[in-house]
Amino acid sequence: MSAADFIEVTSGALSVEACAAIVARLRASPDLHAGEIGGGVYPELKRSRDLSINDRADWADVVQQLNVAVYAGLMAYLRKYPQTLIAPLMLQQPGSDGALRRLEADDFPTMDDQRLGGLLQTCLRPGAINLQWYAAGEGGYPYWHCELYPRDASGETLHRHLLWTIYLNEGFDAGETEFLFQQRKITPRTGDLLIAPTAFTHTHRGNRPQNGDKCIATSWILFQRAEALYGST
């Protein structure tokens, strides 16, 4: 059996029609801006036109649509890798006798969706969604990077636990999401959902698309903040 690389791709997480509608709206938006990394614009590292949609009422339907698609993929990810939750959090839940006991990996396959979903929502939260448009032959994110960095004083970027990307189109060459240490390239397919860890172990880059533009939706799954998980002290 080959070793797990913790990179999961869900085919058809979002319909082709839904993806096409998002791409059309993205291309028509007057609010596109130069893509940022780490709070700044560095086109030599990442060249794209982006649109952050979480705080926009006119994009609320797309935010909902994307989060629903990601939620289903995340549930499957947690069933395959329950350590995503139990390794960092040492979770406890009431057993059949009402007494608290620590959850183990073997508990997850028998959990129904309601119970696992409740656990997910207690421990994790969705990040802000960014739509990105990479122009053929020039756009891309060729800099090897991970998603964790200690830039902001609140530590918000250190709460990122998993990354996700939904590929909104295909029909171009190259443009893969490439993971350095896993030596794996994910070829974009319309509607596919990619989920992977955020740490340096999953250093990655977005290769430049050729002979066609590439559009994606991307964000993170974050831990709930300490005050939500443990209460104020």
TrEMBL record:
<protein>
    <recommendedName>
        <fullName>Prolyl 4-hydroxylase alpha subunit Fe(2+) 2OG dioxygenase domain-containing protein</fullName>
    </recommendedName>
</protein>
<dbReference type="InterPro" id="IPR044862">
    <property type="entry name" value="Pro_4_hyd_alph_FE2OG_OXY"/>
</dbReference>
<feature type="domain" description="Prolyl 4-hydroxylase alpha subunit Fe(2+) 2OG dioxygenase">
    <location>
        <begin position="134"/>
        <end position="221"/>
    </location>
</feature>
<dbReference type="Pfam" id="PF13640">
    <property type="entry name" value="2OG-FeII_Oxy_3"/>
</dbReference>
